[in-house]
Structure formats: C-alpha cells, structure tokens
Amino acid sequence: MVMENPNLLSLFILLLLGHWIHVQAAPPHSLVAQLPGFNSNFPSKHYSGYISIDGNDENGKRLFYYLVSSERSAEKDPVVLWLNGGPGCSSFDGFVYEHGPFNFEAAKSKGNPPTLHINPYSWSKVSNIIYLDSPAGVGLSYSKNTSKYVTGDLKTASDTHAFLLKWFQQFPEFQANPFYIAGESYAGIYVPTLASEVAKGIQSGTKPVINFKGYMGWEMVSRNEYLMVNALIPFVHGMGLISDTIYGDLQATCKGNYYDAYSLDENDGCYKSMEKVDRAIDGLNVYNILEPCYHFPDTATAKQNGSLPMSFKQLGVTEKPLPVRKRMFGRAWPFRAPVKAGLVTLWPQLSETRHVACVNDEVASSWLNNEAVRKAIHAESENVAGAWELCTSRIQYHHDAGSMIPYHRNLTKQGYKALIFSGDHDMCVPFTGSEAWTRALGYKIVDEWRPWNSNDQVAGYLQAYENNLTFLTIKGAGHTVPEYKPREALDFLSHWLEGKKI
Ligand SMILES: *[C@@H]1O[C@H](CO)[C@@H](O)[C@H](O)[C@H]1NC(C)=O
Ligand SMILES: *[C@@H]1O[C@H](CO)[C@@H](O)[C@H](O)[C@H]1NC(C)=O
Ligand SMILES: *[C@@H]1O[C@H](CO)[C@@H](O)[C@H](O)[C@H]1NC(C)=O
Ligand SMILES: CC(=O)N[C@H]1CO[C@H](CO)[C@@H](O)[C@@H]1O
C-alpha cells in the first residue's frame, strides 16, 4: 500500500533520512560559529563543549574538548586525541602554542584578546584533532564536587576512556576513522595508560568500538628516574657543556649511576663531580640549550632594550610567522625533580619553591579568560569553571601507574604502532634517555639509524624497530617540537599517520 503512494513513501524515506542524519551528525550546539580575534572563515569545522563523566552534570566531572576537524578530509583522516602534560597543564597549550589551527598574535594593548591568524602547519591539515583538558580541574574542565580533583594516573586513564566512549557516541561519524593518542611531557604517562584502557575496552567488546591504531609523543618518558638522570650526563658531554676531564671523573666516581649522587655524602667523589655538572649547566635554558635563558624577574624590560644582542632579540624566531614563547612553563618535569610514586608536586608549587620562573602564557591566558571567547567555544564562564591557567594546582595528583615500559611493550606487541620522538636540543628530557629506553625494549632493528628529511634538508634522525616502534629526533628542536620546528613536525606526523616512510 505504501508502495502505491509515492508521496507517503518519500515522506517515509525523508523521515528515515532525517532520523539517520540526526544520529550521524555531531551535536549541532557544539559547532563553533566564530571566534573573537578571527575575522575570516574557518578552514574546517570546529566543535567544542563539555562531556560529563563520573556522575551527572552538577556533581560529575565536566571535561572540556575542542575538536578541529581535518582541513583535508574529515571523513577519511584519522582522529588524534591531544593531551598536554603537567600533571595539571591544559591541552590548550598545544592548541595555542604548538600545532593548533591558529597562530596567536598578542594584542597591542593589555586586556584585549589576541588576533588569530591561520597556522599553515596546523595538525588539522592532516587529522581531526581533539584537544582535551584532563583530568577534571585542569584548564576549562571542572567539577562542582571538588573532591573529584583528587586523582592519579590510573583514574585519569579510566576517566579519559569514559570520555572517549561518550565522545564517539556524540560524534558517530568519526567512529570508523583510525584513532591515535598523542601527547607530550607528563602525557608520557597519560598516553600509554589510556592506550591500555582503550585496548582493553576493544578486547572486551565495549561499545562504541574505537578504531584505535597507535600512539605518539615526545618526552614519552618512561619516568624511570635512573634512566633519565643517567641520560643527562652523556647528553651534556656530547653537547660540549662539560669537559672531557669532568666526564672522565664522573665515569670513574659514579660508575654509571648518576642518579644516586644526590643522596651521597658531600665529600663523595661522585657528588663532587655532579656539582661540577650543575655549575656548568645551571644558567642554560633547559628546554632548548641553544636559546637564551630569560631570568627572573622581568622579560618585559629586557624586550624594550634596543641594545640587546641580536641573538637575544631573535629568540623564538622560527618558520612560524609569530615568535615562539621566550620562556616556557609546565611543559616537562624540571630535572633534579624526578617523578616518584605518590603525590606529584604540581607546576605552580614547583615554581614557587624552585624558581622554575618560566611563566609566559599571556596570550593563551588573555584569550581563554575572555568571556566572549568562552561563550564562543561553549565553555562555562570564570565564575563556574574558574580562571583558565596554563598549569593548575587545584588538582591533587598521584603517580600510581609505575614504570611505563611494560605498557609500551604490551601495546606494541598487540600491533599498535608507536612513534617516540625528541627535540635533540632539549636538556629537560634529553633524547639520550628516550633513545635508551626504546632500544632497551630489545626489539629487532628494521630501519637502522639514518637521517630523515624535510624540505630537502636533514631534519633529524630515526631508528625503527619491529612491532612498529619508531624513535625519531628533530634536529635543533627543543622540548616542544612543533613550537620550534612546525613544518618538520607536520611532515613526520603526516607520513607516520599515513604509514609512509618518514
Ligand atoms: C563528591 O565526590 C566524592 C568522590 O567521588 C563522592 O564520594 C561524593 O559522594 C560526592 N559528593 C556529592 C555531593 O556528590
Ligand atoms: C596487556 O594488554 C592486554 C590487553 O589489553 C591486557 O589484557 C593485559 O592485562 C595487559 N598486560 C599487562 C602486563 O599489562
Ligand atoms: C638597557 O641596557 C643598558 C645597557 O646595558 C642599561 O643601562 C639600561 O638600563 C637598559 N634599559 C632597560 C630598559 O632595561
Ligand atoms: C603497518 C606495519 O608496519 N605493520 C607492521 C607492524 O609490525 C609487525 C611486526 O614487526 C609487522 O609484521 C607489520 O608489518
């Protein structure tokens, strides 16, 4: 009967279609229509908002995400989840300073939001990238029940997994896309622990099925204190920061175990040699030994001084049209403060006591604390979600996941591919450490140490292992690789995601 009535049939199809479209589409209220500071059309669709986990809206954890869909093909390109470290640092660090869709130009006058320009090396050129503020309490994510700010590695991983399942429910059109997890610094813990949750979920048939393919990041620290401190010594020697004589003394007195030096007697030979190392490297910018170190208290006056040396004035000049930050904050663990099991000291607390003195987050702060911006990106206002801080101390965070080595081994053996990379002038987490722990997994080398190219130049070195594990360095880059080398970072990212030779 229906067949005989074409109008009814088309109505029926329309209804079906309408329903189908409704199910397939991202929630319309999450579409970002415009952004203060940007007066042009977006190169792709942006979505943002909250997803509640662990209880209902009022008392649950409201996790804030910002999705930049791919400027090439949102349907086919992978979905990448981006996590900054800390613990306690917002993933808008990545969005504003590293690989987001815009370059931010600070306003001429204080109190005004920055001007946004298109970033030609945005990772949204080749992927649908989700910036997530995690755990609750970080960035724009919050809970009305502040006892939910007490958390740790394992809880954060299961929370983020819960977020992902809900997110893919709300964005079913992305469920079939290959999915990757990426992060930097303390996310060296977030990424493998979350990947492990996702892998377990897939195995036990959790719906929706996440098409998880692999993970990547820099400073994917195993958080093995021995390894990291021990890696520093060959790095500073190789870079010419300590003499052959000091290096010889260190080898003779510490016998390869530099970590324990800090608990030795002051008269011990190893302790004394380590003091010489401290003296040699103390004034350097740990995040990039080639860059000047801006000293407390004030960079603003230094900037105005026309008689500064050229190298100083050109600090931060890269292929990015706008300079990178002069000082960085919250991007990695400062050395001499290795992460141990238990309660983790948060960045703002560290900077008070240890003079990390590296706060330059003005552009991001002025943008994300502007109420018009918050409205545009569907974030709660300051009186609900709190002020946006690059790194917060309002959470209480426990390192309870132990070493990451078993995670990496387990994940790579299950067929998930991993890319571990490192700016080769980062002294905070020297590449020698990442090189050592990737090698220590004991996998067969399938592509032996060789240069890789970008823009017809050697851009760094790589070594690939069986089980799809790749270690890669970026020549001349500091801690936050895309901030220094945006073109090169986009190059190896796109090759790796597409499974092409880097
Ligand atoms: C607040 O969170 C804690 C920890 O999850 C929970 O035990 C408590 O019941 C919550 N309080 C309310 C009012 O929901
Ligand atoms: C390895 O991963 C599998 C699958 O996710 C999981 O069942 C197993 O417990 C993991 N083993 C270890 C040692 O982490
Ligand atoms: C600039 O440098 C000169 C010479 O070192 C110094 O005398 C002057 O106070 C500096 N000015 C500012 C604004 O820092
Ligand atoms: C895509 C890819 O390179 N897959 C490889 C992952 O690692 C296994 C084991 O080394 C290889 O057999 C696959 O070809």
From TrEMBL:
Belongs to the peptidase S10 family. The lineage of its organism: Eukaryota, Viridiplantae, Streptophyta, Embryophyta, Tracheophyta. One of its GO terms (molecular function) is serine-type carboxypeptidase activity. One of its GO terms (cellular component) is extracellular region. The keyword Hydrolase applies. GO terms for biological process: proteolysis; secondary metabolic process. Keywords: Carboxypeptidase, Disulfide bond, Glycoprotein, Hydrolase, Protease, Secreted, Signal. It is found in: Secreted. This is Carboxypeptidase. Probable carboxypeptidase. Coiled coil: none annotated. SUPFAM superfamilies: alpha/beta-Hydrolases. Its EC number is 3.4.16.-. InterPro entries: AB_hydrolase_fold (IPR029058), Peptidase_S10 (IPR001563), Ser_caboxypep_his_AS (IPR033124), Ser_caboxypep_ser_AS (IPR018202). Its main location: secreted. It comes from the Eukaryota. Residues 1-25 form the signal peptide. PROSITE patterns: CARBOXYPEPT_SER_HIS, CARBOXYPEPT_SER_SER. It holds the Pfam family Peptidase_S10.
